[in-house]
Amino acid sequence: MLSRLSPIFLCAALIGQEVPPVSTRQVEAETALIQARLELAAAQRKLAALAQTDELRRLEVEATLRAARAEAAAVEVDAERSQLQRTAALEAARKSAALAEGDRRRTEIESEIRLNQAQNTLANTRLDADAALVAAQKRASKLAYGIKVEHPLNPLINGTLHISDRRISFNGPVVDELAKTVTQQIAFYNMQSEKEPIFIVIDASPGGSVMSGYQILRAMQTSKAPVYVVVKQYAASMAAIITTLAERSFCYPNTVILHHQPSVGLQGNMTQLQEQLSWSKIWCDRIFIEVAKRVGITLDEFVKQMYGATVTGDWKILGDEALRRHWVTDVVEKIAEDSVDELSAAPRPAPIQVIRRTAAGKAQIVLPILQPGDAWMIYDPENIYLAR
């Protein structure tokens, strides 16, 4: 190559060649320069065109990217708007459901109120009808027999106890049916008068369920009208407790009153027996404490006197001694039944019909099943009553 030739050879080569005229070389040089410039300008133009094309492509790509981003943002906004719309629709549906539930509940409450009002109206109508029936029966009795029933606030007049038609019959064992009858009649007579006395008349009762007896006691103690107990033959166990705890209690001198401890039927293992016995003791002691308080001694002393009187603890005494021991408040020689009870519409307790016979042929009356935690307080030396 020329660049590798020695300067000496270069000079010799130039000396051996013919040198063109100066003007031609200038023209050629200028032509070559112009041509080079033209080619350079074309190359620059081409380069500029390429640069413009790349810029246009870049701009187009950026525009496309911005459009895609804008479209994506619009899609996201639409999605968020749709989500907000769905959330708003769901909340509106929930509020609508809550309002509908509130309206339904309000309608139910209003219906219950109207039902209760109707039931109360019906109950008051029935009470009014019952009172009208009693009044009509009284008028009929006066017209038929010329009887005028008095209701003295103090029924003991000149040694004679006068029992009016505000009378409740109390006979046989103390069971739920008897308790319902007695408590209903106490409420019924209170509707007629809150001042005139009500009489619970016991011909003969061996006692019975502690819970049923407690219902009767509470009805007596919460009655606005005074409730007096009259015992003609005998009252034992729960019937004796009802007699002793009455505001006033009357009996004949030879009426028999009997107190004793409650009896309980237990079954199960030793722990269960102890629990049942403990519960029965707590339940029955609460009532016996009131009895001991009424007669003026402690419960322990009362129990001690029971077993001091008889080894079985069945302590029975006659009416005059019952008065001295505060088991009753009054002993009377005469009792006048001034009532017209045969015309009364008051219900009677259903008799116990369940009867079975022992192997020896002895008839026994089967008592109803007690409620859980209840106990029998019934005097039954002949084993007439059979507990289940």
**SSE-based structural type:** alpha/beta
Helical run tally: 8
Largest sheet: 7 strands, mixed
State the order of secondary-structure elements, H for helix, E for strand: HHEEEHEEHEHEEHHEHEEEEEE
| Assigned CATH architecture of the largest domain | Alpha-Beta Complex
Give average pLDDT, whole number.
Answer: 81
| Percent of residues in beta strands | 15-25%
Tell me the helix content.
55-70%
Describe this entry's structure for a reader.
With 388 residues, the chain is an alpha/beta fold. The protein has two domains: 77-147; 149-386, 2-enoyl-CoA Hydratase, Chain A, domain 1. It is 55% helix and 16% strand. The chain has helices at residues 7-16, 22-145, 176-192, 210-222, 238-244, 270-295, 299-309, 319-324; strands spanning 156-157, 160-163, 167-170, 198-205, 207-209, 227-236, 248-251, 256-259, 315-318, 330-331, 334-337, 355-357, 363-366, 376-378, 385-386. The strands form four sheets. Strands 3, 4, 6, 7, 8, 9 and 10 form a seven-stranded mixed β-sheet that branches. Helix 3 (176-192) packs parallel to helix 4. The radius of gyration is 57 Å and the shape is rod-shaped. Residues 1-15 have low confidence and may be disordered.
